[in-house]
Amino acid sequence: MEEVVGKIWDKWITSQVTTDHVDTKVHFSELQSQLLIYYRAMGGDGAKSIEMAEKRELNIHRSTMQKIAGSHKQFYVSWQDERSLRLPPYIALFTDKNLNQSLYFWLTALAAQLDKQRRSAQLNTHDTNNHDANNSGSVLNQNDWFNDNQQATCHLITEYAGLRRLYSTLAHEVLRLRSIEIDASLKKQPTSSLSHHLFKGDFFNKDNDLEQAEKAIATVLKIPGVINQYPPCSKDVLPVPLWLYPPIDVQGQGANFDPMDEKNNQKNSKRKPGELQEIEQRKKAQYADDNRKTDGLLVFQAEALMTWTEQINLDRCQSDEDDDADVTQIAKDLDIISLSRHRKANAARIRFDLDLPAAAQDDLRLGDGILLPEWDYKQQRLVDNACVLQTMISDDVEPMALSSEYQKLSQDILALFAHIGLTPNRRKAQPSGDEIDLDAWIDNFALPVKDSSKQAFYIDTQHQNRDVNCLILADLSLSTEAYIDDKQRVIDVIRDSLMVFSEALTRLGDDFALYGFSSVRSQHVRFHIFKNFDMPHSDHVRGRIARIEPGYYTRMGAAIRQSSQLLSQRGGANKVLLIITDGKPNDLDQYEGRYGIEDTRQAIVEAKLLGLVPYCVTIDKKGHDYLPYLFGSNGFAIVSNASELPRVLPKIYLHLTAVH
């Protein structure tokens, strides 16, 4: 009975303080692709993605009812950092659904304008490093937040008439809602103007600094740019839905936890799309003190432990029985996730899985490694000797003939090549050629009278003069362990593609090489040779391809740089660097996020300067978010059905090299 009454009470008290309009709610997932295109079109940073924001704590003035309900402590606010733009997972602020949708586009345009302001400021300063530290990813102070949003708003409503009308409507509605919030807090009848209360001083005491801050916000929402100093105050103002907030201040340095844990990926693949979107929200982190000497004894009053977050930090080694626990829901309930630097129990097992294999079980390492540079986008320069690339080859490989399954698939591809006239043409009974035609010689030998002037005992193989060199670079990262269906993993599809594609290229007559890569931080980028340009395509090459297994992480820039050097040394006019991958660049260190994206883009720019044609084929359905920035609008292809990659890859190659 108590539980029933409690649920009824909770439902009623929540309904009294909620301000969302459920019937007009607009979800971020419905507009994500449109917003990304709009963001790019408005001049936003090409390396950024658009993701869902998490709730943020704001210490606002709350009414008695809100305090009883325990609400209005956290809010979805929009913000951005050097990696991405974060927007609320849904907007239900207005009674008009079109206004809720328009607010998404306004925030996106504002973010793009703030990016342009930052880039402009960087061009006007000589101290680039210091400026980046103050403007890229750091937490801005309140005065910066106050002025930057005003400046961006002024520019948008001045330059774009459509946005000026949109902002006027949105600002009017936001001010009306803020006045209702204040009136509700004071238990007064709502008025149409926020300034009615603010400027008469009856929202707060006259000596309260929050009153001045609310006055300033209301004023600049009406007329952006009229106030350039944010009044200092001890509390936060009501959320400003028309502005972007500073980035979240994450306490402590990031630990090297695996962002692409295999088990999490497999669990997430079974979830519904809506659940995945909620999981992708970022959480605030804080580090717990691991060095306490009192661990092992926990004393508390059970009735006082009300929420997940009201707990005592306690080391708890996770056992195998806990592997099936649904920790996702717990993580969603947590406001702050506490992290430990201990490497015991489950963390130790992950570390063991990621250890490099012993030399006896590993591929043969060729040399001591190659020092390669990396692009530091904050410094806007190449950092010499930033990573080490280790060339490797399988020395103990069993030769493998082409299986019947691969033969059938290869025949289908070769039929396509023959249909468009790209396979070599063998002409028998020729006076000269590449090999002896025994049938023609026997026929001539059987004649009773032989004409020595008409001897034609050779087969002449005529090749198309394509003059194409192609280097295929395959992503062998840990994520390729994921299953695309009940039978096949991503790595299986990549293996099949290389097996069939190499047969097709051999028959086509194009010179080609096959390489794969993965990485474990900057000092160990693994660069596997399956076939270089000088090796003939043979059973040994097929054996190396058959042994392909998932590696570690995706330090794509180093692999592209080494591949570009190898390909640029080839003769001929047409050189294609074909990259096969399943996701964006990442690694355990700073390569995760913006750093990896920028370094990969710079490596592609360097490849183009060498006269190469870099092209990416991916099965990542989110590739549209970042591939145009990396390869250009015509430099990539997304294969929606991963299992079709072996059949689709040759077609993409033919289209790519058709002009040759």
TrEMBL record:
InterPro entries given in the database record: NorD/CobT, VWF_A, vWFA_dom_sf
Q: Show the Pfam families listed in the entry.
A: VWA_2
Pinpoint the VWFA domain residues. 469-652
Matching entries from PROSITE patterns are given as: VWFA (PS50234)
Q: Which SMART domains match?
A: VWA (SM00327)
What are the boundaries of the region Disordered?
254-275
Q: What is this protein called?
A: VWA domain-containing protein
Which organism's genome codes for this protein?
Answer: Shewanella subflava
